[in-house]
Amino acid sequence: MWALSIGALVIISITHWVYRWRNPRCINGKLPPGSMGLPLLGETLHFFSPNTSSDIPPFIKKRTKRHGSIFKTSLVGRPVVISTDPDFNYFIFQQEGHLFQSWYPDTFTEIFGRQNVGSLHGFMYKYLKNMVLNLFGPESLKRMLPEVEQAANGKLQHWSSQDMVELKEATARMIFDLTAKKLISYDQNNSSENLRENFVAFIQGLISFPLNIPGTAYHKCLQGRKRAMTMLKNLLQERRANPRKQQSDFFDYVLEELQKEGTILTEAITLDLMFVLLFASFETTSLAITLTVKLLGEHPLVLKELTEEHERILKNREHAYSGITWKEYKSMTFTFQVIHETVRLANIVPGIFRKSLRDIQFKGYTIPAGWAIMVCPPAVHLNPAKYEDPLAFNPWRWEGIELNGGSKHFMAFGGGMRFCVVTEFTKVQMAVFLHCLVKKYRWNAIGGGNIVRTPGLQFPNGFQVQIMEKAIEEKEKA
Questions:
Q1: What is the distance, to the nearest Å, from the Cα of residue 371 to the centroid of all Cα atoms in its chain?
Q2: Is 477 domain-assigned?
Q3: What is the DSSP string of 387-451?
Q4: Which terms in the GO cellular component ontology are assigned (predicted)?
């Protein structure tokens, strides 16, 4: 009898818990529509499912069609409101620090570090943002232009001597070497350990189910981070033991900050910042460059206009063999149109997370305090109501449009006070690479090129090219 009573209570308790999970309470209004999925698991498996479509992710598209532009779900055990609504997205960015704050799931903070710049708020975030701008601000980028151009020319010359190049991997290596040099004076040729290999291991498991068991992708990801962080810590300690007389990289700058009396900077924050900057700079930019080259090869009219723009720059140059100037870079109008169109289609940042600091009412719905919110840029960038034929690669759609920050309809680099501080560095690398490429080289796509997408990363699957010098090709034709 007692056993039956206890069993009945257990069943009733579980049933009630499942019901409360699937029907969360909202005291001050009405929750957005949607499904919370399975208990604890939610809709996580559907969310993480990869696909090869260039369109809005099926998870988002299916639920938007069913529930509208704002809907609720549950991911990795957390209630989340997903927004594809341009007005709500803009409202979220504008109310950063007041009604919303930056937030990422525990699995992401475990991966990127609990002291990473994306998880910090208020004065600490602004302090780190200003530190980064010291390296990647306009004045620093002006001085960096010759190094970026030299790196691009050197790699293109090397690749032209090879039968084929896997472009995503090759450009990632090029950008990582340059960024690591500027940040920490790291040179693989003079190091006993390969820092980039640890980042590659990290990236391969970055978007995976968060199961930290040996053999899983997530475990390999955490191990890659651990090894990379150990290397960065050793480099920091080595630099502390042998300080330089003059600043030559970002490590020197942060070491000076760490030694100031009353500094709020810590070693943990410094190392997490280095880690995030290294990851973000080479992974996202190399993807954008690869997609640009792929799209240019598929759209000869775009390539023709791009080439003509850079030929005009060379023609107007006082000294034919001088390097790119900041004025020339800023004059690359069509190049920037190509870049903006590429990142619109690429949706390199397919989800931007925030957390509500108090109950929020919007368009008849209530988002309770403490709930997570995911802004979905792909749904904004591929919205046919804003972009005619949204899946088409059409750089001319940006003609005459000034883009100095995020907007309701373009958030490839974020928006509001958290607009990406390395945006200009990304554009410099892309523009300079394209300048070096189209002025001197032709290329043929050899194989691959499918774009595999997950909610956190997109990457070309085996996009290989053969790069040839124009002068050699023209000589052979003659």
A1: 23
A2: no
A3: SSSTTS--GGGGTT---SS--SS--TT--GGG--TTHHHHHHHHHHHHHHHHHHEEEEEEE--EE
A4: membrane
Question: Could you tell me which residues are beta bridge partners of residue 78?
Answer: 75
Q: pTM for the complete prediction?
A: 0.86
2 Cβ contact list (under 8 Å, min separation 6): none
φ/ψ of 398, rounded to 5, equals -95, 5
Tokens 């001197």 sit on residue: 440
Residue type, 265: L
Instruction: Give, as one character, the DSSP assignment of residue 456.
Output: S
Residue 96 DSSP symbol: B
26 is in an annotated binding site: no
Rounded to whole angstroms, how far apart are CA atoms 67 and 21? Answer: 19
Query: Domain with 364 in it: what CATH number?
Result: 1.10.630.10
Domain assignment of residue 363, given as a range: 1-9+24-469
pLDDT tens readout for residues 56-112: 888 899 999 999 999 989 887 788 999 999 999 989 988 888 898 888 766 666 666
> Per residue in 227-249, is it b (16+ CB within 10 Å) or e — as a string?
bbbebbeebbeebeeeeeeeeeb
Q: Which residues contact 215 (CB under 8 A, 6 or more apart)?
A: none
DSSP label at 400? T
Phi, psi values for residue 430, rounded to 5°: -65, -45
| CA dist., res. 249 & res. 272, Å (int) | 17
Q: Is position 151 within any domain?
A: yes
Number of neighbours of residue 266 by Cβ within 10 angstroms: 11
Specify if 96 maps to a domain. Answer: yes
Amino acid in position 49:
S
